[in-house]
Structure formats: structure tokens, C-alpha cells
Design brief:
The chain has 10 helices and 8 strands. With about 250 residues, it is α/β, with parallel strands linked by helices. β3, α5 and β4 form a beta-alpha-beta unit.
């Protein structure tokens, strides 16, 4: 059954992690929905703008409609991952997405705020939620200079200001994860203290962690025990698909 992304986030908050998975073809959609049905777990199905351009939005919409009929007991939402302004606008107009991500994290803070706010205004007018991003999703090594680490990690005070000024519905934060599979090695670690401070400043607000594909389960569970308030994203579903529980246990 299809739900709005915010409905699933509100149900999961403080109770369990909500997996969001990028899929590219029929086989991956079957695998994702089959796994969700077996686990009795809700999911967020994600498409990137690259996949939309490759497969055609109509094809993706048809495959999801078929999956909804084949797996009627799976609760899911549909999300545009790492969109720019153009792809977000297109997804909003399509009516097939209950949430979009505008990724302007590569811009300066004020430009990120302005770009995100513009997308939020368009999306909210159509009942679509918006995920934004603040910080850079690069791995953090212990031997990096403090100044280099600070330039990558999300600043808690800025996160609070960003959410207030943009009106976004969820925020992807950088605490040491990075995109792509098989990249979590060496002295790289997750900065749980940073995550806890952001959550403290944004109580009840959904936080998102990207780049979960190869984060060791022990490190993931550590953040669950400390701050059970976020959506976990294994980015490379074609290689790894894991649901990571939050809080004291899964309700589904």
C-alpha cells in the first residue's frame, strides 16, 4: 500500500530505522518488495534523476504500480533522490512522488538555503515533502586536520537555522558516512556526538543518513542506541540492502 513519505517517517520516528533504497530495474523492484514483505517492514522506494532519464518516468511509474498489485501488504512511499531544481520540479508535477530531495549541499550556505526554499515552496503547494542536505558526504578519518573535518561535517547550529529558514521536512546530515559501496575502512568513524547534538537542536525532526551501504552493523547500531531518530539509507541497493533497526526494536 502506498503512503506519503511523511506518514512513514512519523510512524518510524524514535522506534525503528526506515530504509530508503535506490532501484533501477524490474529485478531490483521485485527483490526490494519481496524482502520488505518477508520482513514486514515499510520502505521508501527511491529513483535518481539519472535513472528517470534512462528508464523514462512512465516506465518507472508502471513498474511501481505493478509492484503495488503484486505485493499489496507492503507499505511504501516514493521519493526522488538527489534531485536538482529541474528534476524536483518535474517529479512534483508528475504526481507520482510524495517527497523529493533537493541536493544543493555543494553550494554556499546562503545559496543552499535559497535554492532549497524555492523547491519547498513548489513542493508544499502540491502536498509533496522535501528532503534537503547540509554538509558533505565524505568519509572522515581520525588523522584529518580538525579544520578539514569541520568543513565536511554538518554544523548543528547551521542545521537548526537551515531547517527554520527553508521549511524542509527532513534533513540529510554529514556525520562521517560517504556515498558508494565498500568505502568504510581504515580509521574512518561515525561522529555520534555530532548526530546527537543535531537531534537535540531539532527534536522530533527526521534526520537522514546517506551512504549506509558499507557501514559496519556495529557502528550503525551504535548510532541507533544513541539517537533513534533518523532514516538510514543504504545507497547501493544493487550491492547491499539492509534494514537497520532503531530504538528498542522494530514494530514491523
Amino acid at each position: 500500500m502506498r503512503f506519503a513519505t511523511l506518514e512513514l517517517l512519523r510512524a518510524a520516528y524514535g522506534r525503528y530505522a526506515l530504509g530508503a533504497f535506490n532501484v533501477c530495474n524490474m529485478e531490483q523492484i521485485h527483490g526490494l518488495f519481496h524482502g520488505a514483505a518477508k520482513a514486514q517492514a515499510p520502505i521508501i522506494v527511491q529513483f535518481t534523476r539519472v535513472i528517470r532519464n534512462y528508464a523514462d518516468p512512465a516506465m518507472l511509474a508502471a513498474m511501481l504500480q505493478a509492484a503495488e498489485e503484486i505485493y499489496p501488504d507492503v507499505d511504501f512511499a516514493v521519493h526522488l533522490d538527489h534531485g536538482d531544481e529541474a528534476s524536483c520540479s518535474e517529479a512534483i508535477r508528475s504526481g507520482h512522488y510524495s517527497s523529493v530531495m533537493i541536493d544543493a549541499s555543494h553550494l554556499l550556505f546562503e545559496q543552499n538555503v535559497q535554492t532549497t526554499r524555492q523547491v519547498v515552496e513548489k513542493a508544499h503547494a502540491c502536498g509533496v515533502a522535501v528532503e534537503a542536505e547540509l554538509g558533505l558526504l565524505k568519509g572522515i578519518e581520525d588523522d584529518m586536520a580538525v579544520s578539514a573535518q569541520e568543513a565536511i561535517l554538518t554544523d548543528p547550529a547551521q542545521a537548526e537555522e537551515f531547517v527554520r529558514r527553508t521549511g524542509c521536512d527532513s534533513l540529510a546530515v554529514a556525520i562521517g558516512t560517504s556515498h558508494g559501496a565498500y568505502k568504510f575502512s581504515g580509521k574512518q568513524r561515525l561522529h555520534f556526538d555530532r548526530l546527537a547534538e543535531i537531534q537535540k537542536r531539532l527534536p522530533g525532526f527526521p534526520l537522514v543518513l546517506h551512504g549506509g551501504s558499507s557501514v559496519p552493523v556495529g557502528k550503525s547500531s551504535g548510532s541507533m542506541q544513541r539517537v533513534a531518530r533518523w532514516m538510514f539509507r543504504p545507497a547501493a541497493f544493487r550491492r547491499t540492502s539492509l534494514f537497520v533497526p532503531l530504538g528498542s526494536g522494530l514494530s514491523k
